[in-house]
């Protein structure tokens, strides 16, 4: 019996780990994949928070700029400033998009 056990041990050393070791390795791999997926999901969530904070910071800076500029203006200047900002941020892009659509339609 000792000869058989010794031969079995010698063959295992030649071939590699046993079936249970392979199953254990497979479980370890699956666990590592799961942990990696969770880490990637957490990283994506953090990237989303960073983008959100960046947007909030940009809005706060715009608001601060407006407060600083409008504090030095008379009420009439403030009305003109607001009208120009609205035109630049609302009407101009819409007119540019409409112009591009007309231009594309004419080029067809």
Give a summary of the structure in a few sentences.
The protein has about 110 residues and is mostly helical. It is about 95% helix and about 0% strand. The mean pLDDT is about 85.
Please tell me about this protein's structure:
With 108 residues, this protein is an all-alpha fold. It folds into 2 domains: 10-72; 74-108. The chain has 3 helices and no strands. It is elongated. It starts with a helix and ends with a helix. The mean pLDDT is 87.
Question: What's the arrangement of secondary structure elements?
Answer:
Elements: H1 2-15, H2 19-71, H3 75-107
Tell me the β content: under 5%
- Total strands: the figure is 0
Overall mean pLDDT score?
A: 87
> How does the overall form come out from the CA principal axes?
elongated
Uncertain spans:
none
Helix content: over 70%
- Structural class given helices, strands, pairing? mainly alpha
- Number of distinct helices: 3
Largest sheet: none
Radius of gyration: 34 Å
Give the topology string: H per helix, E per strand.
HHH
- End-to-end separation in angstroms reads 89 Å
Domain tally: 2
């Amino acid at each position: 019996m000792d000869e058989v056990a010794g031969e079995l041990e010698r063959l295992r050393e030649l071939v590699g780990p046993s079936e249970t070791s392979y199953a254990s390795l497979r479980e370890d791999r699956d666990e590592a994949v799961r942990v990696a997926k969770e880490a990637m999901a957490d990283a994506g969530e953090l990237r989303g928070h960073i983008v959100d904070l960046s947007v909030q910071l940009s809005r706060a800076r715009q608001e601060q700029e407006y407060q600083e500029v409008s504090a030095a203006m008379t009420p009439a200047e403030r009305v003109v400033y607001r009208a120009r900002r609205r035109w630049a941020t609302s009407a101009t892009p819409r007119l540019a998009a409409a112009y591009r659509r007309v231009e594309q339609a004419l080029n067809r």
